[in-house]
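WARN no homologs supplied; continuing
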Amino acid sequence: MIDVVRHSIHEILMIQGIIDIILFLTAPKVFDFLHIPQLYLGLLYILTIGAMLQIAFMSVLAILYYLDRKKVAMWLCVMFFIGNTVLTLVSIDLGPAYFGYGYTVSLLIVFIASLAVIRNEMDRLDYETFMLQ
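OK structure emitted
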């Protein structure tokens, strides 16, 4: 099961990464076609990375819910809420050049934390499955 979880998260990141690269390469032409100022390209890029991290974080949450680790999942969500709130307020204070960074950085932090949590849960899975019955 550990290998399946690792493979699933890897697949999600690879597919989303490929889609992000295609989006990054085509975005300037799409912006020109839609008459959107190129000024917003940076915001699109950082929010696209944030969306990739959010999909990865949500996949880890789905695994935690499947393993009935609701309390751990809740604390990760609280961590994301607090981090997103604080870092978004900081990025707003820094000005328009930093819009989107609060969201993306908070997701990066919580995704790394969720990977550590899921690794710990997977290490204990065999013991809790067979020894605590």
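The mean pLDDT is 92.
OK
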